Amino acid sequence: MAYYTIAHLLQGGVLDGSGNHPLGIDAEQMTDAVFDYIFDLASEPPADCAISRESLDKLKREFNYWYPMSLRCSGKDLIPNHLTMCLYSHAAIWEDRPDLWPQAFFTNGHVMVDDEKMSKSRGNFLTLDQACGEFSADATRLALADAGDGLENANFKRKTANDSILSLTTFDNWATE
């Protein structure tokens, strides 16, 4: 996860290495000692480093801007593997720096639409943009608030969103009278 804080400066958004390297750094130059400096494990860069101090400090500033990770939001299905390994790897890498460990996790259930698991293959997949276009942003917010939270699966009900349009319109009319 720490790498994602600097990847855009090294890869320019291209994952296979074929794109423009914004800082002009080749993968071979990214040694363990360089990563130790960038990720706050060493106070000085390696003496034999071919990367400019300016580029190294830019990478280090970018990492320090995003770390520690204050909140990681994820689905409940990732608790036994991804989130657990996140904790293990951060504790192993920054053994003496618990201030760089993840500060909090929030997990949620899956999203259902009208009591069915949301899925493209079922044809009931709904993005926020689509919901806002169909029901309005305010009605979508109310339906989402009603859908549930925590580890339970959230159930977005189209009827609730539709009913919210009427409720909001009625309230708006009452408030303006």
Automatic annotation (TrEMBL):
<dbReference type="GO" id="GO:0006429">
    <property type="term" value="P:leucyl-tRNA aminoacylation"/>
</dbReference>
<dbReference type="InterPro" id="IPR014729">
    <property type="entry name" value="Rossmann-like_a/b/a_fold"/>
</dbReference>
<dbReference type="InterPro" id="IPR004493">
    <property type="entry name" value="Leu-tRNA-synth_Ia_arc/euk"/>
</dbReference>
<keyword id="KW-0648">Protein biosynthesis</keyword>
<protein>
    <submittedName>
        <fullName>Leucyl-tRNA synthetase, putative</fullName>
    </submittedName>
</protein>
<comment type="similarity">
    <text>Belongs to the class-I aminoacyl-tRNA synthetase family.</text>
</comment>
<feature type="domain" description="Methionyl/Leucyl tRNA synthetase">
    <location>
        <begin position="61"/>
        <end position="161"/>
    </location>
</feature>
<keyword id="KW-0067">ATP-binding</keyword>
<keyword id="KW-0547">Nucleotide-binding</keyword>
<dbReference type="GO" id="GO:0004823">
    <property type="term" value="F:leucine-tRNA ligase activity"/>
</dbReference>
<dbReference type="InterPro" id="IPR015413">
    <property type="entry name" value="Methionyl/Leucyl_tRNA_Synth"/>
</dbReference>
<keyword id="KW-0436">Ligase</keyword>
<keyword id="KW-0030">Aminoacyl-tRNA synthetase</keyword>
<dbReference type="GO" id="GO:0005524">
    <property type="term" value="F:ATP binding"/>
</dbReference>
<dbReference type="Pfam" id="PF09334">
    <property type="entry name" value="tRNA-synt_1g"/>
</dbReference>
